[in-house]
Amino acid sequence: MAARPKKDTPRAEPSVALPVVDLDIFGIRPLWEEARAWAADAQAGEFRLDLSGAGDLDLSGFQLLMALDQALRGKGGTLVLEGVRPEWLERMARLGMTRLVECCRQVPS
């Protein structure tokens, strides 16, 4: 008897809201551990990360976001950054992080 083909079922879009933390060199380690787990479990689809609760965002935070984006894209996923502050968006653009800029969805003020 032949195996029955599996039906494609739509997957829920994962959404993660960051706790109120700084995405800087001092607070990045716990978030890095979580991000590695998210990327390991990632599947195709959209992965939304809400940054509205985040404090500071420095270069180490940008590196974490870029690594997460790369890991998700490698598995057919898409990173969407929500709640991005205008100054962070400007900093990303000035640093040439166009891939992160493309991931951003600004929340209307």
Total domains, how many?
Answer: 1
As a whole number of angstroms, the C-alpha radius of gyration is: 16 Å
Helix fraction bin: 40-55%
Q: What is the highest CATH level, the class?
A: Alpha Beta
- The run of helices and strands is EHEHEHHE
CATH topology: Transcription Regulator spoIIAA
Q: Describe it for me?
A:
This protein is of the alpha/beta class. The chain has one domain: Transcription Regulator spoIIAA. The chain has 4 helices and 4 strands, in the order βαβαβααβ. The chain has helices at residues 28-41, 59-74, 86-94, 98-103, and strands spanning 15-17, 45-50, 77-82, 104-105. It has a 4-stranded parallel beta sheet with strand order 1-2-3-4. Helix 1 packs parallel to helix 2 (59-74). It is globular.
Main traits of this protein?
4-stranded parallel β-sheet, 41% helix, 109 residues, disordered N terminus, single chain, globular, alpha/beta, Transcription Regulator spoIIAA
Question: Nutshell version of this structure?
Answer:
With 109 residues, this protein is α/β, with parallel strands linked by helices. Helix content is 41%, strand content 16%.
List the helices and strands and how they pair.
Elements: E1 15-17, H1 28-41, E2 45-50, H2 59-74, E3 77-82, H3 86-94, H4 98-103, E4 104-105
Parallel strand pairs: 1-2, 2-3, 3-4
